Amino acid sequence: MLKKIFSKKYRSIPILVMLVVILGLLGMKLFHQWQKQSQPPIAIMIATDMHLLAKEYTGDFFYEPSAAFDGKLTHYSNEYFDAFLAEVLEQKPNLLILSGDLTLNGDVKSHEEMAKKLDAVQNAGVQVLVIPGNHDVGSSSYDYSTKPEPTLTESLFANSFGECYENFGLKQALSRDSASCSYIYEVSPYLRIIMLDTNTSVKGQVHPDTLTWLEAELRSAKLAGADVISVSHQNLHIHSPLLYFTYQFYNADELYELYEKYDVAVNISGHIHVQSIVQDKIPEIAVGSLAVPDSNYGKIVYNGKTIDYSTHSTDVEDYAKSQNWTNPDLLNYKEYCRTYFEGVAKAQTYNAFSESSLSQAEIELLAETYSKINSAYFSGNPIVEKEFETGLALWREQTDSFILRYIESMIVESQTDNRSITIRLN
């Protein structure tokens, strides 16, 4: 009888213990969530594709050939970058992130100038994090100030990037990858940032050893209950059906699978120079280049509940006035850089139709339409078809034109908001 009472009395103990454990774990999770959401907001500024060129390499004879293709304003790279850094110092975010193509073509002198500028920011109390872009290491670099033609200069090799920029993330890293200059930076116990280098070991893809290291770090972050933001130079997603080869990682599928498995909140990239957002389970923000009109940069505010991203333009004109510059290009920078950028698109149109039967007025209409749409697209602004009705009708008659296909893709992609996004966290 006693044995029967005893067995009934203690039969429920394992269930009670299990309930206590479950309630305890639930309580710990809720407490962790409360702590995460009670922390002060974390502010991050992010810029990409600065394409800085040392002042002495521009000189009186500067001509940067690729600018005729993509409209970069590299001849004013020091000026627009200094204007941007002035805004960083004024706003004093917790972090400044630069996601690659720090320099035009990876020459040592330009890297030295970049590091000197970043030293001043970090000494003012803003932690700087950098990764290399495809232009930063192992490229052919030139002094463009020499006459009659540019001369080769010393380039930064891949194994020297980490030494040059050690103070800007690598030294402060929670973990460093041995196969590349990738690292994990812990912003707080609740937020970690992956700085993913895909250019010093194998250009354009994530090294297999880096993927192994990354999975271990993502597992660690998940166990710690930390949110993860990833930063890369190349793109995780295809942002345009005409701009993906060499722009998206060659092994993007492997990386995406890993990020999905461990709930990475967002990937932030650059490389395409376009301000573009892909909304997906793992969303991606491609920040527009500082080297094209508006000199766009991004702001992120993390508060434990959401990641809020917004696009902002560098006020080069205001900075020019504050520095008492007299160059009219810089004092009227918005108009100047847009005219310059649109001029490149117009030149491409004139070249494409140089032997066509169209009249000069028709070619000029095509050029004007393409240049305005292209300019809006790069800035991440919506493209309103009605505003270009006549020009688009003429373009759509040019059925075998690559530019037409590009225009149509830009119109489609501009229908979503490419300048801001709110990502809700688990």
Return Rg in Å.
Answer: 25 Å
Q: How do the strands line up in the largest sheet?
A: 6-7-8-9-10-12-11
Question: Total helix count?
Answer: 16
| Fraction in helix | 40-55%
Morphology call: globular
Low-confidence stretches: none
Fold and architecture overview:
It is built from 16 helices and 15 strands. The chain is an alpha/beta fold. Strands 6-7-8-9-10-12-11 form a 7-stranded mixed sheet, with helices on one face. A 6-stranded mixed sheet has the order 3-2-1-13-14-15. A two-stranded antiparallel ribbon has the order 4-5. The protein has helices at 2-11, 13-38, 55-58, 67-70, 77-91, 108-123, 158-164, 166-170, 208-223, 252-261, 316-322, 328-331, 333-352, 360-379, 389-395, 402-413; strands at 42-47, 95-98, 127-130, 142-143, 151-152, 175-176, 183-188, 191-195, 227-231, 266-269, 276-278, 284-286, 296-302, 306-313, 420-424. The termini are far apart. A hairpin with a 2-residue loop joins strand 7 (183-188) and strand 8. Helix 5 crosses helix 11 and helix 14 (360-379) packs parallel to helix 16 (402-413).
